[in-house]
Specification:
Helix 2 packs across helix 4 and helix 7 crosses helix 8. A seven-stranded mixed β-sheet has the order 7-6-16-17-18-15-19. A hairpin with a 2-residue loop joins strand 2 and strand 3. The chain is about 30% helix and about 20% strand.
C-alpha cells in the first residue's frame, strides 16, 4: 500500500516530542510515558526502540492537598494524611450522594460532589480540574468519568484502617521511560524507518471531501484514495463537501492549551509527578525529571494558558502546546459521532487524540492505529 505522511513540524512526535534542555531531555508536551498494559503495542514499539533501552518504573504520583503530600488517587490514600484530616474526609465521603443511594447527576460539578463528597470536591477535584481544563466545569459531561480511578467508600475505610491503598489504581501503574533519551526518541526512530514516506513542514489547512484532497498553507495539494487525519478538526480552515450542520458543529469542540516550563532545582521527593490543586499556584502538575530520566536534574511544570499571567517573568525554557487536551464537553459525543461517521463514509478517517477528539494516551493511539491499519488493508 502506497502512503504519505504530512507532518506539520520539522520532526515527528507531536505532543510526545522531546528537546534537550539543561543537558537532559525535556518532553515539551508534558508528561508522556509508555504504559505496560498493552503488550502487543509495546512489542510493536520495541521494534523501533528495543526494550533494553527502556527503564521500567512503578508509578509514584502524588497530590499536594491541605499541606498533605499523599499518593494518587486521593480516595485510596487518605490514610496518609494526618488523623484529623482523615476524619473530616471520611465524614464527607460517607454522606456523598453515591453512598446514600441518590440518583447520579448529569453535570460534572454535581457529579464530583455526588461521587466523592464535599471535602474531596472542594479541596482537590474542583480546583484541580479548573486549573487543568476550564473555569466553567459544567460545560463538561460525565460520560468520560469511568477513566478516573474507582475506589469505593468501603475501600477508603479499609485503606485507613490497614494503612495501604485499596481499589482500582490509575493508568500507568507501571510504565517505561527511555534510559538515555526523552520519550520523543521513540517516534523519531519510527519516522526514520519510513523516512521516504514523510514530508515535514507541511501545515494542512484545507480538505476537500469530494476529491479527497488536502491543501497546505504553502499551496501544495495532495490527493488520496483514503485520508487519515490526526490533526484537530478546527485546523481545517477550508472544508469543501461537508454538510453545513456537520461543519458548523466542529466550532463547538473545545480544548485547553498548556505551557510546559523547566526549573533546574532538584526536589526532595521520590514522586515522578505531583498534582497541585492550590489555586494560588499557576501550574496544576509538575514532572520530577530526575525521578524517571537517568542522570538528569530539575522538573517541569504544566500550566493552562489562562493562568500563565500569574507567573513572574523569567528566563526558563518554556514551550506552548496550543492543542494539549480535548475537553469532554456535554455535546462532544454527539458531535464526534456524526462527524466521524460521515467522514468515514467519504473515505476520511479521524484517528487519535485529535482526530477523534479524545484524551488518549500514546499507547492507546498506537493500538487504535494498528487496528485501523488491519481494517484498511481489507478495504484498499
Amino acid at each position: 500500500m502506497d502512503f504519505i505522511i504530512l507532518e506539520k513540524e520539522s520532526e515527528a512526535g507531536g505532543l510526545c516530542r522531546s528537546k534537550i534542555v539543561d543537558g537532559s531531555p525535556f518532553d515539551v508536551g508534558g508528561g508522556h510515558f509508555l504504559d505496560v498494559r498493552r503488550p502487543k503495542v509495546n512489542e510493536f514499539l520495541f521494534g523501533f526502540m528495543p526494550e533494553e533501552e527502556w527503564d521500567k518504573y512503578d508509578r509514584d504520583s502524588r497530590i499536594m492537598v491541605n499541606e498533605n503530600e499523599i499518593n494518587h488517587p486521593i480516595e485510596a490514600n487518605i490514610w496518609q494524611m494526618n488523623v484529623e484530616d482523615q476524619v473530616e474526609y471520611l465524614k464527607s465521603i460517607a454522606i456523598a450522594g453515591c453512598n446514600l443511594g441518590t440518583e447520579m447527576p448529569e453535570e460534572f460539578v454535581d457529579w464530583i460532589y455526588w461521587k466523592l463528597g464535599s471535602k474531596v470536591a472542594e479541596d482537590y477535584m474542583i480546583p484541580y480540574n479548573q486549573k487543568m481544563f476550564s473555569k466553567d466545569l459544567n460545560q463538561l459531561g460525565t460520560y468520560w468519568l469511568d477513566k478516573l480511578p474507582n475506589v469505593s467508600f468501603e475501600e477508603t475505610i479499609l485503606a485507613c484502617l490497614t494503612k495501604k491503598a485499596y481499589g482500582k489504581q490509575p493508568g500507568h501503574a507501571q510504565f517505561y521511560y527511555p534510559k538515555n533519551h526523552g520519550y520523543g526518541e521513540l517516534w523519531i526512530r519510527m519516522a526514520n524507518a519510513i523516512e521516504d514516506n514523510i514530508e515535514y513542514n507541511k501545515d494542512i489547512n484545507g480538505i476537500d471531501f469530494t476529491s479527497k484532497t488536502v491543501t497546505t498553507t504553502d499551496g501544495s495539494k495532495y490527493q488520496a484514495d483514503c485520508i487519515i487525519t490526526t490533526i484537530p478538526w478546527m485546523e481545517f480552515e477550508d472544508i469543501i463537501g461537508m454538510p453545513d450542520e456537520v461543519r458548523n458543529s466542529i466550532k463547538e469542540l473545545k480544548y485547553s492549551s498548556i505551557q510546559t516550563e523547566y526549573y533546574a532545582e532538584n526536589l526532595d521527593t521520590e514522586a515522578q509527578w505531583i498534582y497541585y490543586p492550590d489555586l494560588k499556584l499557576s501550574y496544576h502538575r509538575i514532572l520530577v525529571r530526575h525521578n524517571f530520566c537517568p542522570n538528569s536534574k530539575g522538573y517541569w511544570t504544566e500550566t493552562n494558558i489562562e493562568r500563565i499571567h500569574m507567573d513572574k517573568p523569567n528566563d526558563n525554557y518554556k514551550y506552548m502546546n496550543q492543542y494539549a487536551y480535548p475537553l469532554n464537553t456535554r455535546t462532544k459525543p454527539v458531535i464526534m459521532l456524526e462527524l466521524l461517521n460521515w467522514s468515514r463514509e467519504q473515505g476520511v478517517y479521524g484517528l487519535g487524540r485529535w482526530g477523534e477528539h479524545q484524551h488518549y494516551n500514546s499507547d492507546v493511539t498506537v493500538e487504535l492505529a494498528m487496528k485501523m491499519a488491519d481494517e484498511l488493508e481489507t478495504i484498499y
